[in-house]
Amino acid sequence: MDFLQLPKRTSGNRRYGLTSIADFGTPFGQLKSILDDYGHIIDIAKIGIGSAYVTPNLQRKIDLYKEHGIKPYCGGTLFEKCYQQNKIPEYLSCLRRLGIEWVEVSNGTLDIPLKERLEIIAKAREHFHVIAEVGSKDSSLEMSISEWKEEMNLFLEAGCEYVITEGRDSGTSGIYEKGGSVKSDLISELIKDIDTKRIIFEAPTPKHQMFFINAIGANVNLGNVKLEDVLILESQRCGLRSETFYLEDCHANHLNQTPAHSME
């Protein structure tokens, strides 16, 4: 089908408009079937939490993702486990052997000093594309808006390709309230001052995804997307769902303001 006027989507080896899925143990055969149909609308694949360490057929999975042009990486929890046990060099060496070219530096479970995270990023950038996550998985820990902005800007200045806003796979911490609602005031401030093309917003449910699509546009970067939701998400991005039906080519104004960085 190619006759409707829809919001223009980025395509190919996208730099923004990314869909980053979370793989929490999809069996290899099932994954192959999913990617045969939907691989073209997936850009990044996070092998969730620390599951890569115990995943059967891990090398085959990594190779399969790469065959479909999808960038695989390991969840930040595995990075933090390696940090806790002073095994970061071994971890990075293992990633290189596996052919993984992306690494996440996170702070979701441990309280890793900012200076140390920046030092690890500087070292990892010698061989990897680096993504840094901002925010805690503990919903009782609050960061001020200025702290969010400071960390995100420092990571981007340090050479990270993207920064991820913590949301967990449940959507109940980081950029979300305990009950799952989006901290819209925080998002409003972040998109004023930081290039949204460099932010991956964790949005684990269609409800969360619709918020960011309406707030920023069809080509917002979204992470922690469930594999079974990737076609729903692409439909939402294209204005093919009631909640995004009137989506325009550039961006909507869900936050009652114009974001500083357009997404055309």
From TrEMBL:
<dbReference type="InterPro" id="IPR036112">
    <property type="entry name" value="ComA_synth_sf"/>
</dbReference>
<protein>
    <submittedName>
        <fullName>Phosphosulfolactate synthase</fullName>
    </submittedName>
</protein>
<dbReference type="Pfam" id="PF02679">
    <property type="entry name" value="ComA"/>
</dbReference>
<dbReference type="InterPro" id="IPR013785">
    <property type="entry name" value="Aldolase_TIM"/>
</dbReference>
<dbReference type="InterPro" id="IPR003830">
    <property type="entry name" value="ComA_synth"/>
</dbReference>
<comment type="similarity">
    <text>Belongs to the phosphosulfolactate synthase family.</text>
</comment>
